[in-house]
Specification:
The structure is a single chain. The chain has 221 residues and is mostly beta strands. Helices cover 11% and strands 65% of the residues. The chain contains 2 helices and 10 strands. A hairpin with a 2-residue loop joins strand 6 and strand 7. The longest helix is centred in the N-terminal third of the chain and has 17 residues. About 5% of the residues have low confidence.
Length: 221
C-alpha cells in the first residue's frame, strides 16, 4: 500500500515538473456526506451493547475544502492533482434497553468523526463546460474521534468522547469520480463520489471502507 501511495504522488509531481503548459489553479469547497460500508454496523453495535438491537444508521454530514491544478494535455482533456481537507464519518442510533424504563423512549447514539487530507489525481474531460472526471485518490487520516451519547427527556445519561485515531488506518487508497460544469466567469460546480479501497480498521478485525458524496462550488484562477 505504501508503495502504491508513493507511486501515485511521484507520478503527479513528475507530471507537474515536466508539463510545458500553464496549469489552471482552482479552489473548491462544499458539503460532504460520508459513511462506512462493510462491517461497521456490527462493530458500532458492540459499542452500543446496551441497546435492544433497534439500530439505525445515518451518514455523517461535514464539509471539504482545498485546491487543485488543472494541466491540459489536449483541448478537451486535462490532468488535475489536488489537495483537500475532508470531514468523514459514520453515525448510528439505537433505543436504550433499560429495564423498567422502556416507556421513556430513551435513545443512544455513536458518531465516528474523521478528518482526512485527500490527494486525488483526476483525468478530466471538458465538453463545452460539462465536465466528467475520475481517478485514484490517496487519503491520510489526521484525527478520528468517537462520541457516544445517551439520554431521555433532555437528560444526559452518557456523554463520552474518545480518541480513536490509533484504531484506524492512517492511509486510505481509493478512487473518486463525478461530474461538473464550468462557467465562463471562472465559477464551477461539481458532484462526486469517493470510495476507499483500504480497510479502515487498523487491527483488521473487520472489513469496512470509507465512502463519501460531495457537492461543491469552485473558482478557477
Amino acid at each position: 500500500m505504501k508503495k502504491q501511495i508513493l507511486l501515485v504522488v511521484f507520478s503527479a509531481t513528475s507530471f507537474l515538473g515536466f508539463a510545458q503548459v500553464k496549469p489552471v489553479f482552482k479552489i473548491s469547497a462544499g458539503v460532504s456526506s460520508s459513511s462506512i460500508q462493510g462491517d461497521a454496523a456490527d462493530q458500532l453495535n458492540n459499542i452500543l451493547d446496551y441497546t435492544n438491537g433497534m439500530i439505525t444508521t445515518n451518514s455523517s454530514i461535514g464539509f471539504y475544502a482545498g485546491a487543485s491544478a488543472g494541466i491540459p494535455i489536449s483541448k478537451m482533456v486535462s490532468i488535475e492533482p489536488g489537495l483537500y481537507y475532508t470531514q468523514k464519518g459514520y453515525e448510528m442510533k439505537g433505543q436504550l434497553n433499560l429495564k423498567g424504563l422502556d416507556f421513556l423512549g430513551a435513545s443512544a447514539k455513536a458518531k465516528l468523526q474523521m478528518q482526512y487530507i485527500d490527494i486525488p489525481i483526476l483525468l478530466k474531460v471538458n465538453m463545452n463546460g460539462f465536465q466528467v472526471f475520475a481517478g485514484p485518490q490517496v487519503s491520510y487520516l489526521t484525527q478520528a474521534d468517537l462520541k457516544t451519547t445517551a439520554g431521555v427527556f433532555g437528560i444526559n445519561l452518557l456523554n463520552k468522547k474518545m480518541d480513536a485515531t490509533d484504531q484506524l488506518n492512517r492511509w486510505d487508497m481509493g478512487v473518486t469520480g463525478g461530474v461538473g460544469y464550468q462557467f465562463n466567469n471562472g465559477l464551477n460546480i461539481s458532484a462526486s463520489y469517493d470510495r476507499g479501497l483500504s480497510n479502515v480498521d487498523a487491527n483488521k478485525n473487520f472489513n469496512s471502507y470509507n465512502q463519501t458524496f460531495r457537492v461543491g462550488i469552485g473558482y478557477n484562477f
